[in-house]
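Notes from the pairing session

We agreed to fold both candidates in a single pass and log them together. This is the raw record for the first candidate, unedited. Please don't reformat it; downstream parsing expects exactly this layout.

Candidate A
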Amino acid sequence: MVSEKKKESVLAGFKAFLMRGNVVDLAVAVVIGAAFTNIVNSLVKGIIGPVIGAIGTKNLDVYKTCIKNPCTIGPDGQPTGVELLWGSVLNATLTFLITAAVVYFLMVLPMAKYLAKVEARRKAKEGVQETLEVTELEVLKEIRDALVAQRAAGGGSGAPGSRDGF
């Protein structure tokens, strides 16, 4: 019996964990990110890569430095010696920077500008509402002050509903 209750509580806890908003949001972000990766990779390979290739070389992987001779390909097809493949590191770094720039300038920056506009509209709307509330409050204060002054000047009107009348 104890094990069934413990099993239920573990499953209930797991269900609560999965149903939290941030877990679901994270799952959606991962799926969207995976789909968006193809778009970014296509943009980098199809447009940005050829533009960079027009300036220099398209494949940086060919750049390397031999640090222990002989740096050749042996008869069995395996490289001999020790080479630093700094071109591959440079290629990966540039790909990362280009991808980050594409994501920032095509997604993050426009979204930030859009959210700032929405927030400015919301604040402007709240400001108008607050101004209306303040104006309404001031009008009510003026009416109250006028009634108090009227009552004080008249010394009590005796009107129905007044305290000093009838």
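Candidate B (folded immediately after A)
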Amino acid sequence: MTDAVTTGPTATVRLPDSDATRAYGRALAEVLRAGDLVVLTGDLGAGKTTLTQGIGVGLGVRGQVASPTFIIAREHPPLPRPDGTRGPGLVHVDAYRLSSLDEVDALDLDSSLDEAVTVVEWGEGWVEGLAADRLEVTVVRPRGGVDPADDEDAAAGERVVTVRAVGDRWAGVALPGADAVAG
């Protein structure tokens, strides 16, 4: 018998560029807390790291949030807030180069899961077992007729972000943009 998965709120937003994607990440950080798992899905260049940069700023963590593709995981400890408290840290993982569940297990992500927000790019199908409660985020960047040979500005271009809350933790939580459904 499998456990029933509780699905919470869903939000879909259209973001005109990378600045808006970072701003949405900052807004998303406002509903995140230590122990939260965020699983990011999207094509190469869709804006997963850009969204995570906004989450990092919103959480108030140390260090520049950059793609951890070659080092697999980066930890960003929390900075002190103006009132002297600290929020959760950020563990930013890129599962793109992982090829087995053993490699995922070797990252020992569950050891820091309770103390930080863990964001896993390319995590779909790999990390859902870490937490019954999670946000599943899909980032789509329609390229509509752009010639790949063109040197398109990486900051330009619309992204469509869909956030799906899974698990009891998200009951009653208002996701940013929940009323801004893409058409």
